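User: Okay, second chain of the day. Same drill as before: sequence in, structure tokens out.
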Amino acid sequence: MKINKGWKLTVVLMLALTGCQKNEDNENSVIVEPIKKGNYGFALPYVSSSTSVIHNKYQSNRMDSYFMGEQALELSKPYFDPSSCFASEGQVLSSEEYERFDASYRGLGLLKYKTDYNPEGLNPEKGTYVPSGTGINMYNAILVSDILEIDFVDKDGKAVGYQFTIVLNENITYYDAQLDANGNPLTDKDGNVLVQSEAKKAKITTQQLYTYGSLEAGQRLVSYLRNNHPEVGDLPIQILLYKTSSADSNINGVFIGESYINTRSSTSYTPISQEWVFAPSSRLNTLNSVLAGQISSVKNQLFEHFPNEVGYYGRVFFKDNMASEVELEINMRGKTYVEIQSLIQYVASLSSQISENDVELNIHVLSDGDTVAMLHRDAGSNELTINLR
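Assistant: Same drill. Structure tokens below.
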């Protein structure tokens, strides 16, 4: 067990482990080596992308942002070797390419509907519908809400490939069609379906999102990049499909598909199996009853000795139906230093009981909403690191 007293010490240790290399070809360019072996280093100087405004506007769940980037880099490792490639903020797409409006205030750009005046739009063609699977035809549905870009460069800062994550909405906005007396959709003089003025919300399946992302949105995005960005040229592109969670959810979204394209030929996609599960829950019992029992046992032992005003919340991340990470949050109303520290140390002593599948373990301990300790154990490790406030 390793204990760090104070956040400043943690920062110092991180900086000590981080190496920086200056690019001799460009005096202002710096390569920051990874803190943890096997992860990506980063190319500096950091250049903010204009698309950050779009991300802030359309991001449905703040929890998704960090997780999405972290997992996206994990999924890129088979294609862009971290030992020779470095990640940098995306610079290919601009905010104007995401969305803009013409003189008639018609929506243009990748995040808008596909129309005759906006052929690059990644959302379904305006006037068409997405079947709900329950008999409802959802017109003008918004499936694609964002695109996240990461660029990969070599040690000289030269681009070697790109990654784009298409963010898909599980809870979509749509419109009902206006119907005639026989229940048929009404159309205008140009044959466009007329829709009701009030938008509705509905949930669609992961399979529907995967099908749309792989057959429609992903294909259009790659075509747009190849035809409109000479800097992309024939360099490899990885496309990821991400299903976001709702704004009020306590669970992140997940990646549902990917494609790696190193030619100008058509793209094929592979499903990705990821799932966040609450702990404790019946779903966790179904996926891994041993781990569910371990997490419940820790909770029961904690409550036995600290029965009053202690909250316990957990979730587990599964990849291909295998648990890979456990996150626990323990929130107490500590009245004295001794009470707080004794709980932290007791939690540390119990942590070894959560061992199924050698999962990564992260425990966040709070008192009255303020962080008092962070406990971490790497996957496959027996060493617990404790950072105290």
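The helical segments are 7-17, 52-58, 62-76, 95-98, 206-228, 282-287, 289-305, 337-350.

User: Thanks, on to the next one.
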